Structures are given as structure tokens and as C-alpha cells.
């Protein structure tokens, strides 16, 4: 097993590391917003926290739909159907435009979402202004995600990694100039951060278009050879794959978002400690996510080439690699829990809450990696609907519903720990269900081959 999976694991790692850096760069943009806007005042920071939470949820859900390009293009690459790649990417552009309209409506009319937050009028006004600016960023952000999906599918993620790094640094500088009024003379606060993000994401889209236009690897695909109208057959294929993928993203995001809403009932120190651990969890998730994206692309290429043995071995290599690294990362988190939490907060109560919760993210690293790789490998096989149902059951049912019961309704209420205990149970269940489904798909294809 090791002899056959080791070269594939190395191939996955080679594709995954640029994706990982690009993912970390995107987190860097959010960190920059928090640091820079925090100096502008509490109201602006609160507006960005709420506004960016809504924007990121909408953008990632829609980007999940766009990510359907990845398995479709990977299959075409594996099958060497070069002439079909360009038309499919052009249909992806139409899909981006259609989804951007949907997202713009949600961001422009966020009343139901803001109602949950019960914001002060001044903060709500700033949050609305922030999101109205980001409406202009949404088409570019989705377009960039579409081209990133294509780049990952053809195995060329490095140029987009460079673009992501430059975008993050540029955003930090421009946001500092606009938020504090160093460029305009008048501090723009939260709106300045949104303007900076909008400008930088359009530049990133332009750079990615240039890569697609000039890159040797993309030349045979004739992506920009001509314009064409909407092809509903190809749109149907993208939507059949992409809508479940987008909802899967939304399920996971909303589960953790609503967890934070419920935890808010438990007091400021508990909320702060939970927030530290939630951010740490999001950061550590970038590793298995990057490996999963690479695994999905290689599985898709193998399936497209009708090489079922290579597809199966690639999926297994992704699982071994991600789970092994996650065990190491979980152990390191547990051993260094005090050192990891200490720089983030000086409040002893907050640190005590965070340190006590680190054990849960250390424990679920393995299962979270397994369920992520399994879900993305299934995407490589173009299986997305049943995984969505499993995500709903695990993350909304076990994770959120079970967490609420453990935290507030159990005979001995567990408080915030109850939510994290349920999160561990949810990832265990997801890894078993998705792993079992992956095995079933592989066996089914082996019998029909």
C-alpha cells in the first residue's frame, strides 16, 4: 500500500502547498481588516464583524457552486477532451454572473439577517454601507474562485498563490490608507476596508485572467477564443454538481456561526474563549482543505482518464496524508495549548476557557481531515448530493442540535464545552458516513468497469 500511495501522496502535496498558502493569505485579509478597522473605533469594528460575516457566508456558499468547474474540468483534462474545456469555462463565467446577481440581492437586502444581531442603529447603518460596497466585489471574487477552480483542476495553482499573496499585502496597505484617512483626508472606517477589498479583488481577477490568457498550459483550451451565449445543458451539469457543493459550504459555515450566536448567552469571557478556539479551528482546517482540493483534482483527472485504480489509490493517498498530518497537528495543539492561547488574550478567564476547549479541536483533527478528504474525493467522482444530506445530518443535526442540547438542555448542562463535544461527534459521524460512501462508490465503479 505504501509503495503505491507514496508517489501519489507526494503529488498531492506538490499541488496542495500553493493552495494552502493562498488559503492562508485569504485569512490574512480578514485579520488585516480586524486589526486596521479596530483602530477606527468599536462601532466600525462591530460593523465589519457583522458585515463580513454575512458577506463571507454568502460569497463562500456561491463560490461552492462555482467550484463545480473543478471536477468537470478535471474530468475533461483526464479524458484529454481539450476542445471541451474552453466552452465549459466560458459557461462558468455565465454562472458567476448569474450567482453574483443572487448574492447582490442578499447583500443589498440583509434585513432578516441583521435582525438576528439586534444591532444599535449606528452600527447597523455602517454594516449596511460596508456590504453595499462589497456588492461590487462579489462578481470579481466569484470570478477569481472560478479561475482558481480551473487552475487547480489542471494542476497549476502556483500563479494564483502569488496573486493571493500580493492581493493580501496590497489590501492591508490600501485599507490602512483608507480606513484611517491617510489617503482621503477623511477617515472612511469600515467602508474604507470594503473599498480596499473591492479594488484588490478586481485587480486579482484581472491578474488571473492574464495568467489564463498568457499561460502556456491554458493556450490549447482557447478559453478566450470567442464569446458565446448560455448553454443550458452545460449550466445544468454545473448546477447539478455545484448547488449541493454550495449548500455543503453553507451548512458548515452556518453551523459554526449559529454556535457562536448560542454561546453568546454564556457570558463575555466564554464568548471570547470560544472565539479564540473557533479561529484556531478555522486556521488548522486550511491544511486538510488544501490537501482535499488537490486530491479532488487528481481523482477527477484519473476518473476522466477511466483509470479507476489510480483514482482509488489517489483517494486513499489523500486520506493517509491528511489524517497523518492532522494527528501530528492535533498532538502539537494539545501539547502547546498554553503557548498557543497566551498571545491572543491577557485575560486569565478567557485563556482558561480557551485552553479547556483546545482539547476538542485537537481530538477532532483526524476525523475532520478524513471527512474533508472523503467529501472532496467524492466530488472528483462527481458525487455531491448524498454528501450534502450527510453534512446536513451531521453538522446541523448532531453538531448544532446536539450541541444546543448538551449546552443547555442536558441533565447536567455542559455549557460551551457541549457545543464542542457535539462538534467532535459530528465530525466522527461525517467521517464514517462519507468514508463509507466513498468506499461504496469505488466498489461500484470497480464492478462496472
Automatic annotation (TrEMBL):
Listed GO MF terms: antiporter activity; xenobiotic transmembrane transporter activity
Membrane topology, record value: Multi-pass membrane protein
GO cellular component, as recorded: plasma membrane
Sorted UniProt keywords: Antiport, Cell membrane, Ion transport, Membrane, Transmembrane, Transmembrane helix, Transport
Cellular localisation: Cell inner membrane
Membrane spanning stretches: 12-32, 52-77, 89-109, 129-148, 160-179, 191-217, 238-263, 283-305, 317-336, 348-367, 388-407, 419-442
InterPro entries: MATE_fam, MATE_MdtK, MdtK-like
KW Membrane (keyword) present: yes
GO biological process, one term: monoatomic ion transport
Pfam families registered for this protein in UniProt: MatE
PANTHER family, A to Z: FMN_FAD EXPORTER YEEO-RELATED (PTHR43298:SF2), MULTIDRUG RESISTANCE PROTEIN NORM-RELATED (PTHR43298)
Protein name per the record: Multidrug-efflux transporter
Organism of this sequence: Oryzomicrobium terrae
Classification of source organism: Bacteria, Pseudomonadati, Pseudomonadota, Betaproteobacteria, Rhodocyclales
Amino acid at each position: 500500500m505504501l509503495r503505491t500511495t507514496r508517489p501519489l501522496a507526494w503529488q498531492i502535496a506538490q499541488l496542495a502547498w500553493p493552495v494552502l498558502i493562498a488559503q492562508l493569505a485569504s485569512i490574512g485579509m480578514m485579520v488585516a481588516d480586524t486589526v486596521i478597522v479596530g483602530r477606527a473605533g468599536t462601532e466600525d469594528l462591530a460593523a465589519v464583524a457583522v458585515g463580513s460575516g454575512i458577506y463571507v457566508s454568502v460569497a463562500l456558499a456561491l463560490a461552492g457552486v462555482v467550484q463545480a468547474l473543478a471536477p468537470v474540468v478535471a474530468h475533461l483534462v483526464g479524458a484529454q477532451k481539450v476542445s471541451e474545456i474552453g466552452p465549459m469555462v466560458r459557461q462558468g463565467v455565465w454562472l458567476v454572473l448569474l450567482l453574483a446577481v443572487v448574492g447582490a440581492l442578499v447583500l443589498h437586502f440583509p434585513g432578516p439577517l441583521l435582525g438576528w444581531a439586534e444591532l444599535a442603529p449606528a452600527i447597523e447603518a455602517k454594516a449596511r454601507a460596508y456590504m453595499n460596497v462589497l456588492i461590487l466585489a462579489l462578481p470579481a471574487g466569484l470570478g477569481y474562485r472560478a479561475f482558481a477552480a480551473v487552475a487547480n483542476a489542471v494542476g497549476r495553482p502556483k500563479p494564483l498563490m502569488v496573486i493571493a499573496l500580493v492581493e493580501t499585502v496590497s489590501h492591508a496597505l490600501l485599507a490602512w490608507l483608507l480606513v484611517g484617512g491617510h489617503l482621503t483626508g477623511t477617515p472612511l472606517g469600515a467602508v474604507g476596508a470594503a473599498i480596499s477589498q473591492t479594488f484588490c479583488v478586481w485587480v486579482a481577477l484581472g491578474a488571473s485572467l492574464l495568467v489564463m490568457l498568457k499561460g502556456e498550459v491554458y493556450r490549447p483550451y482557447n478559453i478566450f477564443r470567442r464569446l458565446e451565449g448560455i448553454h443550458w445543458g452545460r449550466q445544468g451539469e454545473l448546477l447539478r454538481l455545484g448547488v449541493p457543493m454550495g449548500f455543503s459550504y453553507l451548512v458548515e459555515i452556518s453551523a459554526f456561526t449559529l454556535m457562536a450566536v448560542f454561546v453568546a448567552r454564556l457570558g463575555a469571557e466564554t464568548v471570547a474563549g470560544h472565539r479564540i478556539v473557533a479561529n484556531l479551528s478555522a486556521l488548522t482546517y486550511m491544511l486538510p482543505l488544501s490537501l482535499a482540493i488537490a486530491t479532488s483534482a487528481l481523482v477527477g483527472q484519473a476518473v476522466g482518464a477511466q483509470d479507476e485504480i489510480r483514482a482509488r489509490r489517489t483517494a486513499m493517498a489523500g486520506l493517509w496524508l491528511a489524517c497523518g498530518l492532522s494527528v501530528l497537528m492535533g498532538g502539537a495543539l494539545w501539547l502547546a495549548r498554553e503557548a498557543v492561547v497566551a498571545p491572543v488574550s491577557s485575560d486569565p478567564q478567557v485563556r482558561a476557557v480557551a485552553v479547556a476547549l483546545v482539547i476538542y479541536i485537537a481530538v477532532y483533527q483526524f476525523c475532520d481531515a478524513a471527512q474533508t478528504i472523503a467529501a472532496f474525493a467524492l466530488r472528483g467522482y462527481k458525487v455531491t448530493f448524498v454528501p450534502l444530506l450527510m453534512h446536513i445530518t451531521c453538522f446541523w443535526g448532531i453538531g448544532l442540535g446536539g450541541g444546543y442540547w448538551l449546552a443547555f438542555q442536558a441533565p447536567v448542562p455542559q455549557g460551551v464545552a457541549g457545543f464542542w463535544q457535539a462538534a467532535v461527534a459530528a465530525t466522527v459521524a461525517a467521517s464514517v458516513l462519507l468514508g463509507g460512501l466513498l468506499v461504496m462508490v469505488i466498489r461500484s465503479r470497480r464492478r462496472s468497469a
